[in-house]
Amino acid sequence: MLEASSSTADLPVIPGKRYFTIGEVSELCGVKPHVLRYWEQEFPQLKPVKRRGNRRYYQRHDVLMIRQIRNLLYEQGFTIGGARLQLTGADAKEDYHQSQEIIKQLRTELEEILHILKR
């Protein structure tokens, strides 16, 4: 199961569509549909839209997430748990950097207000 059919560089370009079926995502990511359904249970970040009859429709960000998960598992050798931690850590780092930028901006604005009040 851990053998990859092709490397990330060999994967096809993601078309400019809004929604993708599980079969299309399977081809775009080089992963079988049953593996995609399993990953949905293991990775909380992966939430395709479900419509009539529980049909899954993946969006572009889902396809990118699946490729990232595939890379972590098949090419970098992470376990499911390790890949989950990597993805959670990446989200936390991004949130931290965004928070730092907001704090810097607020501080600058408050210093400008203080400067105006001191006049």
Secondary-structure map with pairings?
Layout: H1 22-29, H2 33-42, E1 49-51, E2 55-57, H3 60-75, H4 80-118
Antiparallel strand pairs: 1-2
Span between termini: 69 Å
| Number of beta-strand segments | 2
Report the β-strand fraction as a percent range: 5-15%
The whole-number mean of residue pLDDT values reads 86
Largest sheet, if any? Answer: 2 strands, antiparallel
SSE topology string = HHEEHH
* Multimeric status of the protein: single chain
Count up the helices.
Answer: 4
CATH class: Mainly Alpha
CATH fold-type name: Multidrug-efflux Transporter Regulator, Chain: A, Domain 2
Which structural category do the helix and sheet elements fall into? mainly alpha
Strand line-up across the major sheet: 1-2
Give the second-level CATH assignment, the architecture.
Orthogonal Bundle
Which segments are poorly predicted (pLDDT under 50) over 5 or more consecutive residues?
Answer: 1-5
Radius of gyration (Å): 20 Å
